[in-house]
Amino acid sequence: MLQRARHLLGRKVATLDGELGSVDDVHFHDDDWTVRQIVVRLGVWPPARRIVLTTDQLEEATWENGTIRLSTTSSQLKKQRLTRLDAPVTQQSKIELVHIDQQTTPPRIERVRLLGGDRNLLSVREILGYRLSKADERFGRVNDLVFDPDDMHVRFLVVLPTRWFIGRRRMLETSHCRHVSWLEKAVTVDMPRKELRRSPKLKSFPNIH
User: Mind listing the pLDDT tens digit for each residue in 34-45?
Assistant: First the structure.
């Protein structure tokens, strides 16, 4: 059963001994298009703690009835914390981007340096709304990611096209994605617009949750 990433946001996460928290974000790698982490928010009011569940911890999880159920206890998981190395690249670079914005006019964002961390780790919350384009031709915006919980592979981008067919969300296989730029907030693809026009609609996939 395929899973829409944005439908996970806010979903409850439970353990063997009770409720742990709710899904705050989903992190994926843009080099192999696999979900690597799920961020869980503990508690409701800020500053709420956030912990990271890796794909290894999710292998034995069940995804049903609006809840992700883990085969471990809350006490074991609450010892973890979300660190800079766990964070998506946009959060890793926040300090450096602020520094550059203050020191250069216009900002010289090409000077961004990551102090450790993973340059290919991206956030689902962040990528929603990214432009989809090929060269100077814009197709629309990213509306969602669809992945398979069995192998955590992101199989499709859900694309909300530009005005030429409003409201018809299309399914684009991630094999057509060539580059994700978090600086430009864009996804470059190798598919011409006329082919995207013929790609399947989201509603033609009844097995997606």
Answer: 999 999 999 777
Cβ atoms within 10 Å of 97's Cβ, excluding its own: 15
Model pLDDT, residue 110 = 54
CATH 2.30.30.240 corresponds to the domain 3-77:
yes
With pLDDT > 90 as the criterion, what percentage of the chain qualifies?
A: 35
Q: Which of 160, 152, 124, 159 has the alpha carbon at shortest distance from 3?
A: 152
DSSP 3-state assignment of 72?
coil
Residue 160: pLDDT band (50, 70, 90) is confident
d(CA 141, CA 129): 5
Please give the sequence-ordered ranges of beta strands (E in DSSP) within 72-185, or none if there are none.
121-123, 131-134, 137-148, 153-161, 170-173, 177-181
Global pTM reads 0.83
Q: Which two tokens stand for residue 186?
A: 């864009």
Q: Which helix (H) or strand (E) holds 100?
A: helix 94-103
Half-sphere exposure of 89 (CA within 13 A, CB side): 17
Residue whose C-alpha is closest to residue 24's, from 92, 90, 123: 123
